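FIELD: query
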Amino acid sequence: MKLIRFGKPGEEKPGIVIDDVHYDVSGLGEDYDENFLGTGGLGRLEKFLKENKKNLPKIGSHIRLGSPIARPSKIVCIGLNYADHAKETNAAVPSEPVIFLKATSSLCGPFDDIIIPKNSEKTDWEVELAIVIEKKSELSRRG
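FIELD: result
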């Protein structure tokens, strides 16, 4: 099962992909946001699927896909995390992680146009891997 969100920008609905078929799960009544992930939403989604899978509307292949996660509060990135990337940029491999943030407004769908700022002189393409942490650890709640 893969989480997707589909529809016009700013109007996305939650969906899933099972066996390469896209389904609308907006009947669950929740979007894939931090609250969903932090309060056991994946378990609620699994229960919803068990009860409703046969009746889920299919999503056509022509429908736009958006970012699979709605409105994250932050995107924390690790720079130069591959030795080859450091080499190609003529940078030294860092002795500790290079951490930076990206604007949450930079999220887009996999086939959306990328807006390059006017007069940009150093726009670079990258392939990103995102990891979503479902809930806070006991340690982070105390501190």
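FIELD: remark
The first helix runs from residue 34 to 38.
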